[in-house]
């Protein structure tokens, strides 16, 4: 498929036909590689033509890069505020074999994720973001963009998306149009998930001033790629085309997920009873059924604290985070100015992190290969001490910052 070249029209009315810059091949530019493409689409998901592929995934929020899975690291993970997931692979195609390999790879990622629980995904997201310098949970990343997000509903929606394989799979690169037919046939032969799939070509044009214009575009958009729903109930397997009216999966019981929820509920319930806080003004939420037990910080601060029990990674932690907004920035800066005294009061090595979207402090401790039940009592005792210190240390300082700013 050959696309027409764009024309740049200046304010004086002169027109310049832009020159296409191939990403690979003998005339390809060395300025761009797969890492560059990955970073571009991670930082600017709004540039992806998602509405042409599946409008229900239009509000993508970048979660992390290089998410480690059992079948390799996937390039970029996104999520929507509704708890749906999208996976992106960025590739500069160099030979026909590479095309089939990467399409097979992205299906391997989808299969792998469909076996994960929310807790597994959340722990992997934390690991990936920690490598980037901001150890946030999946929920907190999305919540930083949508402060009204309901935690329980988001948790259930992500869990449902995982077990159904309800995801958007994206491949972005150059030269894909040369073999679209073969790729779509390969996709149809592997359609065993309730997924949407998109092939996106990254077209680059050289501007007159030497800069470049990047134009992502959907290829073969007139093609309908079937999405197959497989409903397994007992010995019966029903298969339906998801494009057909009413093709939806019913809620499928997951004994492993229910057992996981019960395990965390009992852990947090016992922990809250055994380790009451010194500060009785701190609101206490009901025990959760997953890795995080949250604590709201003073109203208006935008802050949220969490105790974390990441079972599969054998890690426990406590973090306090704030979104990047004016009042939260002021609070974080006031805390950072008192860093020496705070570190002394906490009595543990604190990580102070700030980026374009989030800022906060955290403490993490590795207990073993699995946290529960092997290190249950030890982890509860450690979390009880650190959470109590966090509340005693940070809550009064946050309240003081709010008073000084006239927010309380």
Which terms would index this structure?
408 residues, alpha+beta, Trna Endonuclease, Chain: A, domain 1, Yope Regulator, Chain: A, 2 domains, 11 helices, 36% helix, 26% strand
Explain this structure.
It is a single chain. The chain is α+β, with helices and mostly antiparallel strands and 408 residues long. The chain has two domains: 7-114 and 165-241, Trna Endonuclease, Chain: A, domain 1, CATH 3.40.1350.10; 255-404, 2-Layer Sandwich (Yope Regulator, Chain: A). The protein has eleven helices and 16 strands. Strands 3, 4, 5, 6, 7, 8 and 9 form a seven-stranded mixed sheet that branches. The longest helix has 29 residues, at 376-404. The protein is globular. The model is unreliable at 188-192 and 220-254 (pLDDT under 50).
Q: How do the helices and strands line up, and which of them pair or pack?
A:
Layout: E1 7-9, E2 15-17, E3 19-20, H1 34-43, H2 50-53, E4 61-69, E5 72-79, E6 85-92, H3 96-113, H4 118-131, H5 138-143, H6 151-164, E7 167-174, H7 180-189, E8 196-206, E9 212-218, E10 228-233, E11 236-241, H8 255-274, E12 292-296, E13 304-310, E14 315-323, H9 326-337, H10 339-346, E15 351-354, E16 358-366, H11 376-404
Parallel strand pairs: 6-7, 7-8
Antiparallel strand pairs: 1-2, 3-8, 4-5, 5-6, 8-9, 10-11, 12-13, 13-14, 14-16, 15-16
């Amino acid at each position: 498929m050959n696309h027409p070249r764009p024309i740049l029209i200046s304010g004086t009315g002169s027109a310049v036909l832009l020159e296409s810059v191939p990403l690979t091949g003998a005339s390809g530019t060395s300025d761009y590689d797969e890492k560059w493409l990955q970073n571009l689409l991670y930082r600017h998901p709004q540039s992806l033509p998602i509405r042409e592929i599946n409008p229900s995934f239009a509000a993508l929020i970048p979660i992390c890069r290089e998410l480690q899975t059992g079948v390799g690291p996937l390039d970029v993970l996104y999520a929507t505020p509704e708890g749906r997931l999208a996976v992106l692979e960025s590739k500069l195609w160099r030979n026909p074999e590479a095309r089939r390999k990467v399409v097979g790879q992205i299906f391997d990622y989808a299969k792998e994720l469909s076996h994960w629980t929310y807790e597994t995904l959340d722990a992997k997201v934390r690991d990936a973001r920690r490598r980037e310098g901001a150890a946030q949970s999946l929920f907190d990343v999305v919540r930083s963009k949508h402060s009204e997000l309901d935690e329980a509903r988001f948790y259930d929606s992500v869990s449902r998306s995982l077990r159904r394989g309800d995801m958007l799979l994206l491949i972005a690169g150059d030269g894909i149009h040369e073999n679209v037919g073969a790729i779509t046939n390969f996709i149809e032969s592997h359609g065993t998930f309730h997924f949407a799939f998109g092939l996106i070509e990254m077209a680059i044009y050289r501007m007159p001033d030497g800069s470049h214009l990047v134009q992502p575009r959907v290829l073969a958009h007139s093609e309908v790629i079937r999405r197959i729903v497989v409903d397994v109930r007992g010995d019966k397997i029903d298969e339906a085309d998801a494009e057909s009216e009413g093709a939806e999966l019913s809620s499928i019981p997951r004994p492993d997920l229910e057992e996981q929820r019960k395990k965390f509920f009992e852990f947090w319930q016992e922990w809250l009873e055994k380790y009451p806080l010194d500060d009785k003004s701190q609101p206490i939420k009901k025990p959760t059924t997953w890795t995080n037990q949250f604590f709201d910080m003073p109203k208006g601060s935008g802050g949220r604290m969490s105790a974390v029990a990441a079972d599969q990674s054998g890690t426990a932690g406590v973090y306090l985070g704030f979104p990047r907004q004016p009042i939260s920035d002021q609070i974080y800066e006031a805390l950072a100015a008192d860093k020496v005294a705070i570190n002394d009061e906490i009595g543990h090595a604190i990580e102070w992190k700030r980026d374009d979207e989030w800022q906060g402090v955290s403490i993490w401790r590795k207990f073993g290969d699995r946290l529960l039940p092997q290190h249950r009592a030890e982890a509860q005792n450690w979390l009880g001490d650190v959470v109590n210190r966090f509340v005693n240390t940070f809550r009064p300082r946050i309240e003081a910052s709010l008073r000084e700013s006239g927010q309380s």
